[in-house]
Description:
Blueprint: H1 2-14, H2 20-30, H3 36-43, H4 47-68, H5 70-81, H6 86-134, H7 136-139
Helix pairs in contact: 1-4, 2-4, 3-4, 5-6
Amino acid sequence: xxxxxxxxxxxxxxxxxxxxxxxxxxxxxxxxxxxxxxxxxxxxxxxxxxxxxxxxxxxxxxxxxxxxxxxxxxxxxxxxxxxxxxxxxxxxxxxxxxxxxxxxxxxxxxxxxxxxxxxxxxxxxxxxxxxxxxxxxxxx
Length: 140
């Protein structure tokens, strides 16, 4: 039962990051409480394929939460709403905001590295093209 609650929370927060077929199968299994065999029959796939897709979605959801901590932060914020200590509230919100700054900075660095790599790859391709056009093979 604990896994069902966990995965329903994760699914509610991250389902937009999943493929349509993953959403349907996962929803049928966790929200509609259909058996793997019933899902397999509904979609015309094997029971093993259903199990594999559910396992894949569970892994994706866990990875999203490990990276983004949206569910964890929501739970922390819900607890804060019942706190009466304003200093504790400020401290906890500060920790969450610092964490988000780290995540955003890391994401930007990854994108910059990706763009730099793309630019260099194009340069390499361009250099290969220039070398090829100047070579004897091109002239033949």
